[in-house]
Specification:
Blueprint: E1 19-24, H1 35-39, H2 44-57, E2 61-66, H3 71-78, E3 82-86, H4 99-106, H5 116-122, H6 125-134, E4 142-145, E5 160-164, E6 178-179, H7 182-196, E7 200-204, E8 210-217, E9 221-230, H8 242-246, E10 254-258, H9 262-274, E11 280-287, E12 293-300, H10 312-319, H11 324-361
Parallel strand pairs: 1-2, 1-3
Antiparallel strand pairs: 4-7, 5-6, 5-7, 8-9, 8-11, 9-10, 11-12
Length: 362
Amino acid sequence: MDQIYRGFEESPEVRTVKRIGVIYSDVRREYFPTEAQYITEKDAGDDARIIGNYLEELGYGVLLHPGNSRLPAWLRKHRPDLIVNLVDSVKGTESLASAIPGVLELLELPYTGADILGMSLDTNKFVIKKLLQQHGVPVPNFQLFTTPADYLDPALRFPLISKLNSIHGSVEITEDAVSENEKQLRKRLRYLIRTYKQPVLVEEFISGREVTIIVLQEKKKSVYQAEKMFKDLGRKYNYLTFEDQWLTEMSAAFHYVKYEDALLKEYVKKAFNITKMGGYAKFDVRLDQSGRYFFIDTNCNPALGPKEQDVALSVIMDLHDIGFAEVMQRLVDGAFRESNRKKKWLNSRLRENGKNGKESAQ
């Protein structure tokens, strides 16, 4: 187990957190259209228990519960001081997970991670790409397909990679994900749209180096960068497939090394704000042959877990000499601080509205 979070000067408010609720996806095989999507969440309960163990080592009482229809009653009964929100899907649908922070807001419970808006945006990759593009954060050229027969923008240049618009976890990022011509692309679109009943985001494949960035939102945003050093995977295009990430050990495909770039750091901070992230986030960025950055993936509430589980967040933080227990303490502190900030803002607005109401009455 990691050492207790070092160097943080606790405020009286933070010390009032005694019991933490850890909520996680309620996973059943029948919720998911494919085995691949089920695999990305099947260990949700076990992962929550591991995180609960770390929180107990930090001195907190821990309660665990799945994010299902019984959650509101459970929260009202037990009233944890703070929630660690690990829910990635509700009834197998990622977009429904944004209901969880909505419930927590209604019950006025502090929680880790993004709010309802941030989580809603996160499950629409097309909207995220549009937001980044319009605010000057570089992304590959892209197009959203709602049917396999949609018009193909002639400005797009092959090879193109196809991604499910509303599902993360590298689901269907297989060796067939990259198309070299329109025939291959149409075939891929037919399979994805028919199987998952959702649009597909198609973007130009950036063949080059790849950097992963972790952001922790504290009093200021802390940014931690690492480059993926790919092994020779015997493929024409170098990228991680679903199998690489879920069915083999990370070391079989790549390893991380520390990476630092001030320009990328500023891009990431901007992207964090634009996409309404909260608490923590993960970004994947590729460099083309000219060294230009392109944001290829964004994740609010990325996977949590110790580095022994090959969790990207913890492996990267470890490169920066920050253990998982410290990460969890910082997330708890940041969530409680953000909750207090919201309360102060709301109280200030209520006082101002009340004052304006009295003046209008006079």
